[in-house]
Write a structure and sequence with these properties.
binds zinc ion, 460 residues, 2 domains, Aminopeptidase, 33% helix, Alpha-Beta Plaits, binds ligand BES
Length: 460
């Protein structure tokens, strides 16, 4: 049966691509309220697709953007899996840097390889459609699904998933499965699949520093008046020492060294730091001294300034001492670092360095701890075998630098582990202009899920 499913996938690829393009045309930017109806359209579109495949599918309202929940009606036996993906996307700016319009998907050919170019192509519409299309193929050949499948699609992942935990809590019985399948991560390389075993956590903070009660003339007051941009940049500059370590007291509490088994596993991966950085126009690792690039992105915590505003930034020139300056920061967490403790430690650090006459306000942009999955169990074994069959080489067991907080939420709220298998590549430009997903990722991804479902089914 599996052979017929795989043939069906190959045969149906052009139609699968058409369906993905239809989803990519929907401008589902979750963070911008102007796109609220578009986000809803993407949820409706997915619900209709899943209903057409014989799922009991519905759009489920939340305080924010809706969830899509679907349960296969075939009554398959075998383990119960919950597939999770997100149908929202990041904003497209700077839009002028896109070579083709972000919501008008194109199939481009670069170095003889075909790629799907559009916002969301890789993160995460292309990836979630690999699973939907795998289900379609199983059903098309008359086999039904080899495992009991439920699906949860979220529309707020790119804006911090504010409704996810309340929704999971309120629908725990309905959503609980034996294992969650998540397709929102990367491959090891174009030819080798990966299973992601650990991801970093995240803390988002925004700080605003104010000094005088109005903008001031920088000649009249300059030299005497406190400048909040100077105060802000001084504090931001103090956050790292010369070796790239974060200086906030207590920041490294709960940060462990990578266990030797994991480190030796990583040593077998032929990670090319030079080409990783070279692919984005950089040459020198800028993180913590004495750590490999792989460690810097997978197993070390960070503090990054993501944006900074203050004073006059318009055309021309204005001699002003502004009344306020602000910055947005994110911390990537590892090990047992606690998001709320990191937030408090950061706030205490800022207050400590705040001079007289300045005030600071903080805004909380959410947080989630790091994720580590157990190296073992039947589902991981089934996925490893299936991916080996598809790609002809064992999948790499990797870490990842990004954050997928739902993994921790599923564990905490439902006691459910996740299996993270994704087909993105490091050069997919997720969150950047000209995002792409390789056709080989899409095609190989569909075939991989078809095989993983078969493997999970035989676990029954
Ligand atoms: N798919 C990414 C996370 C990711 C990227 C995992 C690359 C592994 C490799 C996800 O959509 C994402 O961007 N998440 C945000 C976090 C969210 C809370 C805003 C992130 O990591 O910044
Ligand atoms: Zn994503």
């Amino acid at each position: 049966m599996l052979e017929r499913v795989l043939q069906q996938i190959d045969h149906d690829l052009p139609a699968s691509l058409d369906r993905l393009f239809a989803l990519l045309r929907i401008e589902s930017i979750s963070t911008d309220p102007a796109y609220r109806d578009n986000v809803r359209s993407a949820a409706d579109w997915l619900t209709a697709e899943l209903a057409g495949l014989g799922f009991d599918a519905s759009v489920r309202p939340t305080a924010g953007h809706p969830m899509v929940v679907a349960h296969d009606k075939d009554g398959a036996t075998g383990p119960h899996v919950l597939f999770y993906g997100h149908y929202d996307v990041q904003p497209v700016d700077p839009v002028s840097e896109w070579k083709s319009p972000p919501f008008d998907p194109k199939l481009d050919v670069v170095d003889g390889r075909k790629r799907i170019v559009a916002r969301g192509a890789a993160d995460d519409k292309g990836q979630l459609m690999t699973f939907v299309e795998a289900c379609r193929a199983w059903k098309a050949v008359g086999g039904g699904l080899p495992a009991k499948v439920s699906i949860l699609f979220e529309g707020e992942e790119e804006s911090g998933s504010p409704s996810l935990v309340p929704f999971v809590k309120a629908n725990a019985e309905e959503l609980r499965a034996d294992v969650a399948l998540i397709c929102d991560t990367s491959m090891w390389s174009r030819e080798r699949a990966a299973i992601t075993m650990m991801l970093r956590g995240l803390v988002g903070e925004e700080i605003t520093i104010t000094a005088a009660d109005r903008d001031l003339h920088s000649g009249l007051f300059g030299g005497a008046a406190r400048n909040p941009i100077h105060v802000l940049t001084d504090i931001l500059a103090r956050l790292h020492d010369r070796d790239g370590r974060v200086t906030v007291p207590g920041f490294y509490d709960g940060v462990d060294e990578v266990p030797t088994e994991v480190r030796s596993l990583w040593d077998t991966l032929d990670f090319a730091a030079a080409s990783f950085l070279g692919s984005v126009g950089l040459s020198e690792p800028a993180g913590e001294a004495g750590r490999s690039v792989l460690e810097q992105i997978w197993s070390r915590p960070t503090c990054e300034v993501n944006g900074i505003v203050g004073g006059y930034t318009g055309e021309g020139f204005k001699t002003v001492i502004p009344a306020k300056a602000s910055a947005k920061l994110s911390f990537r967490l590892v090990g047992d670092q606690q998001p709320e403790r990191i937030r408090e430690a950061f706030r205490a650090f800022v207050r400590k360095h705040l001079p007289a006459d300045c005030k600071v306000e903080f805004a909380d942009h959410g947080g989630s701890p790091a994720t580590r999955l157990p190296f073992g169990g039947p589902y991981l074994a089934a996925a490893r075998a299936a991916l080996t069959d598809e790609w002809g080489v064992e999948p790499a067991l990797v870490g990842g630098g990004g954050s997928i907080p739902v993994v921790g939420d599923f564990k905490r709220e439902l006691g459910m582990d996740s299996l993270m298998v994704g087909f993105g590549l490091d050069d997919d430009r997720i969150h950047s202009p000209n995002e792409k997903y390789e056709l080989s990722s899409f095609h190989g991804g569909i075939r991989s899920w078809a095989r993983i479902l078969a493997g999970l089914g035989s676990q029954a």
